[in-house]
Request: fold
Amino acid sequence: MKLSKDVHPMFDQKVLALLAQYNIRTLSALLSTKSEKVASMLMISYTAATSLRRDLLADYASFPTIGLEEYQARLEKESSLSTGSLALDQMLGGGLGGRLVTEVFGHPGTGKTQLCLTASATSLLTSPGLVFYIDTKGDFSVDRFIQILESRSSEMVSSGSLEASARDRLRMCSATTASDLLEAVTQIERLEEAEVSLVVVDNISLPVMRLVIHGNIGKGMGIGSKVSQSLHRTASVRGARVLLVSNIKGGQGLEASTRPCPGLGSVWSNTANVRLLMSRVSDTDIEVTLMRGGRVGDKCSVTLGKDGIINKVPPHSTSC
Reply:
């Protein structure tokens, strides 16, 4: 704020001119100057200088916050988000962590999209922030998402207003090309004054794969790197959870079967903080293996039902 006669009754033309001689023309510059020096420059008493400082702070400074309250608020914002399955949450150390990028990959039909839909519904019902769902395949099912949302909202609390509020905080985006994907994640990163709870990209490798298939490997690598960096900034700076879906890398032989990894290799190799491999066991049962982050190699089983991803309860077992 520029110093003027309207800022404080003491600031007449003479005082403003004296301060300008010392290159003090803004409120921040004046407040960063010690009271002793201000008293000397304006030829006033130290008491008058401290009183001026106190008046300016009272009128223009933000209210102080209690450190403990700020810490607790940050913990609440960065708390983990449930995947929908308690067993999977426990394997992840509490669920999808704030400020982390989690990637799920696997063969088609292994429940990757269902996990994204479930996490999105859970976030909308339990967190106040926005949920951004970027669909690169063009197969987002509104009916399926509403089914999961309605089922979980009725379990948590019978409130039509809660469900309506949840739907209002979902932001859908279609990004079928790599350029569209980069633009979408960049816009989310640059959002101002909006709390972002979850960002889902389903599927993140598909748009870049189209470039690679057509020989534009350099462009694909460049856009892929920018998308990865933008998502990490959104996670780390905004405290959001980021959930990505990737294809599984093709190939044959022992290495492909014992060391499965996401498609596109080095393009996404450093994108995820946490990586999960999803494998179909039966029509409703899915095995999830932790490939990066936490205790690598841990596995758990989940079931796919009308309310999305839920716990699997084996007939003769109580743990996953």
In short: The chain has two domains: 13-60, 72-311. The chain has 13 helices and nine strands. Confidence is low (pLDDT under 50) at residues 252-256, 316-320. Residues 13-60 form one domain.
